[in-house]
Amino acid sequence: MDKGSVGIVETQYLTIAEPPEQFTLESGRTLSPVTLAYETYGKLNHDKSNAILILHALSGDAHVAGRNSPEDRKPGWWDVMVGPGKAFDTRKYFVICSNMIGGCKGSTGPCAVNPATGKEYGLSFPVVTIKDMVNAQRRLIDHLGIDQLLCVTGGSMGGMQALQWTVSYPDHVRLAIPIATTSRLSAQAIAFDEVGRQAVMADPEWMRGEYYDKTFPSRGLAVARMIGHITYLSDESMHEKFGRDLVKPEYGYDFLTDFQVESYLRYQGDRFVERFDANAYLYITKAMDYFDLRQPSGSLRKELSVAKAKFLVISYSSDWLFPSYQSKEIVTALRRNNIDVSYAEIQTAYGHDAFLLESDAQTQLIKSFLEYAV
After folding, report:
1. β-strands 94-98, 34-41 pairing
2. What is the pTM of this model?
3. Contact 178/287 with Cβ under 8 angstroms?
4. Cβ contacts of residue 118 below 8 Å, gap of 6+?
5. Among candidate residues 53, 57, 63, 78, the one with its CA nearest the CA of residue 138
6. Which of 149, 273, 283, 291 is deepest in the core (most CB within 10 A)?
7. Which residues of 109-147 are buried (b: 16+ CB within 10 A; e: fewer)?
8. What domains are defined for the chain?
9. What are the 10-residue block averages of pLDDT along the chain, 374 residues in total?
10. CA distances (Å), origin 31, targets 120, 121, 212, 335
């Protein structure tokens, strides 16, 4: 372990809405019971005022930092940002990260067992929204005895959840750091999500979501991941990393892998299949599509007017999935409400994935914001 590591961390589980209680979703449908997987880092101070909730993106989970066992080859997905001396300094802050409902990493989702049938939910699982995810997280925060979070933050879909926290529970958030995110998906982003879902559903082994204990739509999910992964990069970063480099010295004149970029995308797709559920991919991307912070009024300014947190909004110059103009729309709406907001666009070639990679620039911004905005 390096000196900045949080070390070995154990995933914990909270079950809420146990019968006869029910967890009501935005759609009007209900779930019971609901399990949330989560991890914590650092210590909660005596007045419980140092808690930071980190929200993960589409393919993330509760394991944001450290390792779950000494044998783990890789640390958590944002280990560069969470730990002693890092942006979210666990010597100062009590950091929480929970797996979203609808996912497949320990929280209740389509691959969880439906207690009414004894079988996995599959497509009988109700569609969940970003607001549903945040409402479930609020139950976790209540369970931990925290009345007000010092900060909510996350990148991409995690940023959507952070924004939703500030309007759903304005009295319970002091600071918010939405990163590489948007108040609603563009038509282009929704289109990419739909192509990914169609890739999964076109796989014969998807079996209308009833593949558990039978087969698995590996090729469909791998293609969906390949499509998604392209949107996380930029033209410049792909050119720098791959160019037109070949796997072998000459063209194969067939439909096998010729280019390095093809090999990379296939590798990313195959790795994703090993750790993610195909149905969960459908549900999570649909939740992203439905997210629209302008509703119900149609005005982003009006919907954000209830927020009481101070904001630091971060975007990336080469992010074409959630381009900087979408972050600037959030900043403008906050300023028109006289809400305290700082904004930074980080110059980078990494594209949307920059929030996972540009740790130095992010760390400087976040450390200063956490220290001086309170």
Report:
1. antiparallel
2. 0.96
3. no
4. none
5. 53
6. 149
7. bbbbeeeeeeebbbeebbbbbbbbbbbbbbbbbeebebe
8. 12-185+292-372 (3.40.50.1820), 189-286 (1.10.1740.110)
9. 84 96 97 98 97 97 96 94 97 97 97 96 98 98 98 98 98 98 98 98 97 96 97 95 92 90 96 97 98 97 98 97 98 98 97 94 96 82
10. 14, 11, 20, 38
Instruction: Judge whether 284 and 102 are in contact, CB under 8 Å.
Output: yes
Residues belonging to the active site: 156, 319, 352
From the CB of residue 290, how many other CB atoms can be counted at a distance below 10 Å? 19
Interatomic CA distance for residues 374 and 266, integer angstroms: 45
Q: Token digits for 261?
A: 């970029």
- HSE-CB at 322 with a 13 A cutoff on CA atoms is 32
